[in-house]
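User: Predict the complex.
Assistant: Input components as received:
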Amino acid sequence: MKALTELLLNLSARAGADRADVRVEETEGTTIRAARDGETEVRTGREAGFSVRVLIDGAWGFAAGQETEGKGPEEVVARAVTMARAAAGFSARPMDLAPLSPVVDQWATPFEKDPFEVDLGQKIDLLREAVAAVKGKRILRASAGYAESRQIKTFANSEGSFIRQNLTECGGGLAVFATDGQEIQRRTYPGMVFGDIGSRGYEYFEALDLAGEAPRLAQEAELLLRAKPCPRKKTTVVIDPRHMALQIHESAGHATELDRVFGYEKTLAGGTFLGLDKLGSFRYGSELVNITADATVPGGRGTFGYDDEGVPAQRVDLIREGLFVGYLSSRETASRIGRPSSGAARADAWNHYPLIRMTNINLEPGEETLEELIGQVDEGVYLESSKMWSIDSLRLNFQFGTELGREIKNGRLGDYLKNPTYSGVTPRFWAGCDGVGGRDTWRLTGFACAKGEPLQFGIRIGHGAPAARFRNVEIGV
Amino acid sequence: MSFIDEGRLIALFQEACRSGSGVETELWAEQVLSEVTKFNGQGIFQNLSERRLRIKARVVREGRMGQAAVEGPLAEALEGALSRALESAGRGQKVPRGYRFPEPSPLPEVKTCFRRTADFSPGERAERLKKASLEAARPGLELSGSLQVSEAIRTVVNTSGLACSGRTTEANLNYIAEFPTGRSHAGRAARDIDNLDFTGLAREAAQRSQEAQNPQPLEAGDYQVILLPQALADLTPFLGMLVFSAAADQEGRSHISGRLGEEVFSPLVEIWDDATDPRGLPEAFDLEGVAKRKVDLVKAGVPQGFVHDSLTAAAGGVETTGHAFPATPAVYGPIPANLFLGPGQAGLEEMIQEVEHGVLVTRLHYVRCLEAKTVRVGGVTSDGTFLIQGGRISHPVNQMRFSASLIDILGRVTGLGSELVTVRRRAQGPGPVSIHSSAFTLPGVRLGSLGLTPTD
């Protein structure tokens, strides 16, 4: 591998690159789905290739290819150089990188059971047990899923870094759909309908105990068909940790991406209301709100050793006691604000350019139990499991829907509510946060996220979140 | 380095199929050279090029299907995909009794590849985008944009004797024009890059963003609404995934299951899928190598049927319509990937004149589905929302939120624009992560009413 990365860096230097970095990656994975009628679908895949990024005359060029033999490396470097030279012809501002000392290291995801060593039949049996445990007259379908993946990455740059990483992840989930012919209600576990994936081994999937959760999901999906619609009013909401993950993702994670500030994502993902003028002074939420980007948290799907610019994984504050204090950044964007990179330059695959992506964006736990969060609500709604999400291009005005709602009356959970939705304006919503659950309610949830052109939707990110309470929230919109 | 010769690839695949000892086999390859140029007011900040080969194998053994996809150099990818598919077949998806991969069928004569697009160099892209930026420039305006140009060869061979290969090109141009208080968008997709008006689109975005400045608040209410084609295209992907897919019908989750022949939509609504129409983004065959043809989906507001791939067709005892879809995972089954909504006679000005008190919407942002059977979707207007009063644009208004059934929205169509616009849209369904990318050729539509609420 060292020979290939050196060849690519040498070819880049010879072609006139002022800086260059290369990534060589190989990803292997399997997904399995099992349905209620005993059907299973197994898909396996492998992808391998490499990419080169060169800086020439202050402009970046990027190219990716797969042929490591013969003229392959030369052709990819030549394309990267062509892209950089073309960009230099329409560029008013030279690009550069925030400083970083060279790193030579390797890193691997710690795990107990290697998922790739577990028999396929064993995995399928667990999924089949889960869907078999889904019972009910109005059940339309049930689907249990499993995913495992291993990514072996090598990064090297012209500054002398050489980093090898072996990233393993595993997880799964269960989705149950019920219908009365007029509508479809669903319940999922854990987290969103995608299930949950962590940077862990097979032990993580086993511990999910999908079969154990199946009867509850089936019962709730059927119950929701008969539930009251969500009323429209302003009230207090208590949100479960799994849906909090999505709230954090959309309104804090994306909002703090520094490339959005510089307009790099306008044509697709959008910008952000958190402009540079707000850094360090803007009140994002109440004093209970502490949000971090932590690529070091054990088991998080966004946990790694180094990002795709060779920056070490780190934990940084984004929101501290309600104040906006930090961005997710890359070396390139960080150089523009005179700060070090926060280690968030990441590509979802060998052929894609590293963009600013979330790592594990976490709402740090407070002290209350779920019972205490609910117990202090005279009238409100408890919301659980994400179903629908929409937010404007500046990450300011949002609307979310969850799978399940429960009335809260006099501090106790009451009737079920179907299709609950709520909307808000990001800083106003977080300012209304007056209760944050403790470590006992805190859950890590693995996410995938789409961003960039060409679209990168395989990025591995995580969110750690406790349950939390918010006052004066518009529901039923 | 050029693409692998199509004849050589077909011969290699046929040999691999022959050596499969009677196992039903299908091999699919996609070779792509894709390049993206992204720029803003300070010039190009990302200029990206990728070349990749992806081979996908499906095998049927003892009534079960195994499938695998491998990216990498040819020999490695072919061997890897085949061996993995064979390994997983024993525990794979059960296929309908007697299922075989599709047999060859005559392919339509459609021009899908334009040398001009394939040869459009990075230097030419930078030059044309720079020129368009300069020509659209106005004081206070920042223009951002992206241009994606790709050339792809897709090859399918199976043990039923099917062998086909086709080359496509595509260019996708999008601009965002922004003033401090006004923003808009213009964009198009085409097989032939010469059909994209670089400067014209930049000026269109610039003009609308200028008009969108200083938006005023608008009260919540039911409004007559004109959705421009780009806004409609933000909704229509859900039709493909949730309504017109035969998989949705067979699983009982489509709104029109059991309602074919009933008037479900406005009688003005005509929807069809046609990858042979040069106004869209033509394709000659689908992921399984089945010839593309026109499929009527809605006539005069009445649903006509569903689109099929070979698996849903076998399950339903009908012929595949050529709509196998390369989603990963393919949780929504076959999908109409070249959807048309029939145009009307009215120009945009005429459509506006018909509105006494309403709202014109340029685009929608972040549309997601809350309930699949009624296709209840929600999102926010973006890139220029305008109040119409007395048949004329009155002034720009703040972005507005909506939440409504897409079935109801298409039931309230009271007018259709005469101009068809082709765009590519990606959308995420309400199920597991599966990003669908389809072509939509659509007019603007006028809706009798749509509930809008302020976002602030």
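The mean pLDDT of chain B is 93.
Let me know if you want any component modeled separately.
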